[in-house]
Amino acid sequence: MSLVVLGIPWDANSSHLHGCAAGPDAIRAALHSGSGNDATEHGLSVVPKLSDLGNLELQNSVGDLDANWADANVITDAVDAQIAAGNRVISLGGDHAVTYPILRGVAKHHPKLTVVHIDAHPDMYDDFEGNPLSHASPFARALEDGCMQRLVQLGIRTATTHSYEQADRFGVQMIGARQLDQFDASTLDGPIYLTVDLDGLDPAVAPGVSHHEPGGLTVREVLDIIDALPGPIVGADIVELNPSRDLVDMTAMVGAKLLKEIAGRMLTVG
């Protein structure tokens, strides 16, 4: 098995601010900066084991739904092709809209997928501002398409009445930031896909996001979640880094740290 890193510079479907298209390169710069090294916390030198595919070429055209569907298809096809070639993909967004087309590609190969989703927001709006591809809607689209058998959301702290209705509709397990002790990773059935929205962390440790939502997870809590995941972990993404909002590259460094630890976990649990 090879681990590949795929940059997806797509933020045309952001609802508040744009800038997440610059996220993949910011995480790469942090990953290779001189302030750290290649090892995970468990001593695995993981960075040399990553094959970086660079960034997808996308139109990223704000307000052009046809162009955005075309971009979504490019993302799905790229992920599909990598898995068909025997690789596992860690994607760097972009906003959270990238996860729906990614999951379409993953589900072609793993029809009984469990998705673990770390976020401040449920991202299950049926129709947000008339855009079915909004970064507020990826899991509604993925659930409608049958891309997973189970969705577990962790760190949620902005759920609306509609979000709870959607969770009931699709049988989603939504665990708030106050209830992390209710998360039992041993109940997860593989294969597992992990998606990390950086605004799931508290903005005190990850300020470089478009939507600041105080009261979030610590970096250590997210690392503990990663370490608890059973295998096989067949893919992952890290999304919503907006470098224009970052402070001294703090959030980019968090993204790079999570990339290393996720990759290490993928390599050690199969």
Structure description:
This protein is α/β, with parallel strands linked by helices and 270 residues long. The protein has a single domain, classed as Ureohydrolase domain (Arginase, Chain A, 3-Layer(aba) Sandwich), CATH 3.40.800. Helix content is 31%, strand content 18%. An 8-stranded parallel sheet has the order 2-1-3-8-7-4-5-6, sandwiched between helices. Strand 7, helix 6 and strand 8 form a beta-alpha-beta unit. The chain is globular. The chain starts with a strand and ends with a helix. The mean pLDDT is 97.
Strand content: 15-25%
- The percent range for helix content is 25-40%
Element string (H = helix, E = strand): EHEHEHEHEHEEHEH
Number of domains: 1
Distance between the termini: 9 Å
- What are the segments in which pLDDT stays under 50 over at least 5 consecutive residues? none
Tertiary shape: globular
- Give me the count of strands: 8
CATH class: Alpha Beta
Under the CATH scheme, which architecture would be assigned? 3-Layer(aba) Sandwich
Cα-atom radius of gyration: 17 Å
Biggest β-sheet strands, sense, barrel: 8 strands, parallel
Can you give the mean pLDDT?
97
Number of H/I helices: 7
Structural class estimated from helices and strands: alpha/beta
Strand order of the biggest β-sheet: 2-1-3-8-7-4-5-6
CATH topology: Arginase, Chain A
